[in-house]
Write a structure and sequence with these properties.
The complex is a heterodimer of chains A (254) and B (248). Chain A is mostly helical and 254 residues long. Chain A is built from eight helices and two strands, in the order αααββααααα. Classes of the chains: A mainly alpha (254), B alpha/beta (248).
Chain lengths: 254, 248
């Protein structure tokens, strides 16, 4: 979630005109289906397809390329130890470091699944604002409290991030540097506490603003649900293609 | 209880911050329908707290709290206050949270039960009134400070409230946007309470003023008379507006 902030420019997504409910269903279902892939070859194809979807649906490269790089690094941190820890038929040996066939398969599957799901999640986040996600989820039947918690959580994280940005600018303007002296660490700790208090204060005002406009847990969307060929095409291009891959894998054709 | 002739009738209003510091200490306020009243006072006087109480957004105590037909002393009625008294926040960034301007302005009417078509129409009318119709599909965070303020005002007008509570409406605005806002507010016929340090703006829009200090009312009356009282203003650390200051 934190990787999604600062919130991207949704107006650059070619999916922005498609009904938010369909966007959410299409990407969430595709992310869920990726978990059923078993074969590394088909999973690699699925991963490439997910990355292509991300690149085609949303041209905001400076936003998602560094995030994909961080996600890849994060997944590798968990996957690389597994390469050497899972025992089985050895295929590569260097002293006590052994990579087995099983460990290579398991690590590859985890890595490719993680990458494919992350690419689909970023494509979803890039085309759908958190408000639209919450409103869409509510209209798809998610409970009122859960939806409110989700939306308020997103607003809270965004508020903290904005306050952090403001504080950083204010600090730089007054000559603060990132040197790791004791004084700097203690002032950083105080600043973190200050950031928390400031963002809580800001969130309270936002909460007041929402309540003052009559919010009682429902998320009004300003359009009727739309289902046209574009919504169906998106569903087919995401969940449809991903499920087709699983079917072909299960049938032994891939 | 006898019906009050005033739209707002408050007696003995008290409010404390979360840490227990009192912000309002037995404040009395009466506002008639259609009046434009300036709420004046130094920083920390309790102007914003008064507005939060009037909009039912914080808990408070009072011996009388009547807004229209709503009895604010009954806690179950406090949520209804927001539908009658719409609050414009000091910082418009606090107020705008939807992905597009149109959705943000229609957020209030939809919450008050309007259909999608009716809410959109109210929003479009309000945006037209504030001159922001062309920006209806823009994300609010991409607007300038003056535009954000006008969108926030449209969000209030779309709810069709009885009372507009405007907290520092001219803050952060340049001269042109300030002038546009003043003209908009002068054209608007709602009952208005304006908390501000911009005394020249208050003189242009309001007929009456209430001076607040340390959570209580220390002066009230016709705005020209009140702002002409140099000794009262000086005792609160306030300066007379230039347009009323005696020429040397």
């Amino acid at each position: 979630m934190a990787l999604a902030f600062p919130t991207p420019n949704h107006s650059k997504s070619i999916l922005r005109g498609i009904d938010a409910r369909w966007r959410s269903i299409s990407f969430l279902l595709a992310m869920f289906l990726v978990a059923f892939y078993q074969n590394t070859t088909t999973l690699a194809a699925c991963c490439i397809y997910s990355l292509l979807l991300l690149a085609i649906t949303w041209r905001d490269y400076p936003w998602y390329v560094p995030r994909m790089a961080w996600i890849t690094g994060g997944i590798l941190v968990f996957v690389i130890p597994g390469l050497f820890l899972i025992r089985g038929e050895p295929i590569w040996n260097l002293g006590w470091l052994t990579i087995s066939k099983e460990s290579l398969h398991t690590s590859s599957v985890i890595f490719l699944r993680g990458l494919a799901i992350s690419a689909l999640a970023l494509a979803w986040v890039g085309s759908t604002s958190f408000y639209e996600m919450a409103a869409g989820a509510r209209q798809l039947g998610l409970g009122r409290s859960l939806t409110s918690i989700f939306w308020m959580g997103c607003e809270q994280i965004e508020t903290v991030q904005k306050e952090f940005k403001r504080m950083r600018v204010a600090l730089k303007a007054r000559g603060q540097t990132t040197s790791a002296s004791a004084l700097s660490w203690s002032s950083t700790a105080r600043l973190c506490a200050n950031l928390l208090v400031r963002s809580l204060d800001k969130t309270e005002r936002l909460h007041h603003a929402i309540l003052s406009r009559g919010f009682q847990g429902e998320f009004p969307m300003q359009s009727q649900p739309i289902t046209t060929w574009r919504e169906i095409l998106l569903l087919l291009a995401t969940s449809g293609i991903v499920s087709l891959g699983i079917l072909l894998e299960q049938a032994g054709w891939l | 209880m006898t019906a009050s002739p005033n739209l707002i009738d408050i007696k003995g209003l008290a409010h404390k911050y979360a840490d227990g510091t009192p912000s309002l200490r037995g404040l009395d306020l009466q506002i008639a329908t259609g009046e434009s009243v300036a709420i004046l006072g130094p920083n920390g006087a309790g102007k914003s707290s008064l507005f939060l109480c009037l909009a039912g957004l914080v808990s408070f105590e009072a011996s009388m709290f009547q807004v229209g037909e709503i009895d604010g002393l009954r806690k179950e009625n406090r949520r209804l206050l927001a539908s009658r008294a719409a609050l414009l926040f000091q910082d418009s960034d606090d107020q705008l949270f939807c992905p597009t301007v149109l959705e943000d302005v229609a957020f209030g009417p939809r919450n008050h039960g309007a259909s999608i078509e009716a809410a959109n129409q109210s929003a479009l009318d309000a945006l037209k009134f504030t001159g922001m119709l062309e920006k209806k599909d823009r994300p609010p965070h991409q607007l300038s400070g003056g535009e954000k303020r006008r969108v926030a005002l449209a969000g209030l007008l779309a709810m069709n409230p009885d009372i507009l509570l405007l907290d520092e409406p001219s803050q952060f605005l340049d001269h042109r946007n300030r002038r546009n806002l003043i003209n908009l507010l002068k054209q608007n016929s709602h009952t208005k309470l304006i908390a501000t340090h911009d005394l020249e703006m208050a003189l242009e829009i309001c007929s009456r003023a209430v001076l607040i200090s340390e959570g209580t009312v220390v002066g009230k009356g016709p705005i020209h008379e009140l702002l002409g009282n140099q000794s009262l203003l000086a005792s609160l650390g306030m300066e007379q507006p230039h347009s009323l200051a005696p020429r040397s």
